[in-house]
């Protein structure tokens, strides 16, 4: 076969002519041959365990070397030295061993590709299934259920989480823990907004609870994809001091002072405040949606979707003559469908417009020493229930009047009584309490 292979020989060799590197026999030798397509292939020739001569292709001659498919002459000699070492160490069936190695390498490549695909999918999922995405899905769920609170929840979460902590907003939802949420609540409480901090905590906790329930229910499909199994807000303590404002209640003299103020206030704002009180301080979100279609004789029918209800509960509220007079004052002459209005029915009032009207009255009461401290519509609602309780109205009737705490099986499936007479009697007692010191 001649002496060692030279590059010139590789360049000028004829097809199918063998070139040998002249290695000693018995340990395997380097060979080269140009095939009919003009490519020069390197071979390692050795004797297999059955005594047969094997010519094992080890790569194609090239000016570059990748150690596998393309080999320079020096690269081919290095590869032969490696194979010879394996052969002399007892690995005499190199073809089978190399095939196994190739299969292992191919499997490793496939596994690496699959791992990269899984990592890419996980990264994509993490980018899509963030805390922010979960909160948006929760708000969409509330809107789908037509919950009146949906807008307030969305605004609060955007202000206190999305806008204040964009990095926390982007944390994967399943990686959120109490430490993740702590800075959000800390910032609000440090600003002295304890009640707002308590609301945000409640909204976050409710969002995770809804996602957990979605895994085993047919509702809230948009929340199911997050695969939430644990509520990170479960162990976050309540906001200390946040419930202080919720304990405020007007005493009877303060309630009567409030009535004196609104009874003499002229215009639609005064009528609005009188209607609000004389209907038992119903939730403002429900009152502002009332239209002429909701009038039912001497009553109005509210749609109560608060809480975990999937369908709104119809809530009938009787109208005392004084409440009906206030309604007529707001809507006469009638120029639109809305009942609670400052524009004769063209547009409904808002939560803000009612709160503004009350704020003006309350400020005057504080200045005149008629009330110990300022109060809100929520305080007035709580006052109504407290004063009626003190006057002997049962908890069940108060619950029906203000439409709260009516979620049990008994109320849902069995008790179909509308309590209209009982509600009217309670409202008449409220009116008597509020006007007790007023000369009619």
What does this structure look like?
Mean pLDDT is about 85; it is low at about 405-415. The chain is rod-shaped and about 125 Å long. β2 (about 30-35) and β3 form a beta hairpin. The protein has a 5-stranded mixed sheet with strand order 1-2-3-4-5, with helices on one face. Strands 6-7 form a two-stranded antiparallel sheet. The termini are far apart. The chain folds into 3 domains: about 5-90, Double Stranded RNA Binding Domain, CATH 3.30.160; about 130-245, DNA polymerase, domain 1, CATH 1.10.150; about 250-435, hpI Integrase, Chain A (Orthogonal Bundle). Helix content is about 50%, strand content about 10%. About 30% of the residues are buried. α11 (about 265-280) packs antiparallel against α13 (about 320-330). It is an alpha+beta fold.
Set down the secondary structure blueprint.
Elements: H1 7-12, E1 18-20, E2 29-34, E3 40-47, E4 53-61, E5 70-71, H2 73-88, H3 94-128, H4 131-144, H5 150-162, H6 166-169, H7 178-190, H8 194-214, H9 221-224, H10 252-263, H11 267-278, H12 284-287, E6 299-304, E7 313-318, H13 321-331, H14 351-367, H15 377-390, H16 395-402, H17 409-414, H18 420-434
Parallel strand pairs: 4-5
Antiparallel strand pairs: 1-2, 2-3, 3-4, 6-7
